[in-house]
Amino acid sequence: MAETPTIRFGVIGCADIARKVSRAISLAPNAALYAVGSRSLDKARAFAAANGFPAAAKVHGSYEAVLDDPDVDAVYVPLPTSLHVRWAVLAAQKKKHVLLEKPVALHAAEFDEIVEACESNGVQLMDGTMWMHHPRTAKMRDFLSDSNRFGQLRSIHTHFTFAADADFLENDIRVKPDLDALGSLGDEGWYCLRAILWAANYELPKTVIASRNPELNKAGVILSCGASLHWEDGKVATFHCSFLTNLTMDITAVGTKGTLHVHDFIIPYEEKEASFYAATETGFDDLVSKWIPQPSKHIIKTDIPQEALMVTEFARLVADIKFNNSKPEKKWPTISRKTQLVLDAVKASIERGFEPVQIQE
Fold first, then answer.
1. Which terminal CB of the chain, N or C, has fewer other CB atoms within 10 Å?
2. Is 102 designated active site?
3. Residue-level pLDDT at 1
């Protein structure tokens, strides 16, 4: 059996999420932690020591040093959204494959710069939406695609909320207009909108209408918002995201014959197993005292967590390019761009006084 090629990762930036992805890189069978860079050498050293980097890993006091290392195959970019276009483009120009945190950019035009740089330099681009890579997601797709059990999709409703503490609401980069100006919409809404597009098989809605009275902080960053999405064939979707309410991570997708419910779609309750509920042609008994048949629970197990599966898939694509002269997979940047387009439309609707916004590809 041929040995699995190992892709060497550099991490640029020491954000909290980088701790999780660094662990994922170490767990992935075809990836290795090779380098880390921060604006502070001391911070980079502390991060490497605390997050399982091997003793031989290179530690740098700048992002540029990671990108200039000829032995780094790919970089993970967990920097604030406002810095994505600069560093992702530079990484691509240095021929580094790019695993980019979400939201991918402040708006679609910025993301298009990143895509152009990656395409012109022949490097793979993927965003860090981890739940897409859990085997549960594929099983849920099987149910949604089954015309006999689910039928035709008619509505999708998603939520991602958590109750941030006072320190978060005052100091986290996700509430700073110069760092992550999209706030809750970019951080949480991204997942909700991706789930809606995923359920709709990535068909873009025609119209987006933001919900009235979003909550903003004193700097104008969104702390809580929502919207409705409308397709020409009558499908509808809603989402709500918030830094101000209790933790929820729900998808409800309703078809003409069936319903899908999942309550932990972004981060499963358990790291190595996840579940969803499926109902088909459900009704009541003749005295309306119980559901018949009741929704069935489906449990899917995995040997490694979803973030490690994400790294494994990304590293596989990179290895195909590096060793087999394959072309970069366009699926992932295409999905990212569609998510960004809908996010942009929600933001535009808020800014225009909750008017309907038409989406143009």
1. N
2. yes
3. 45
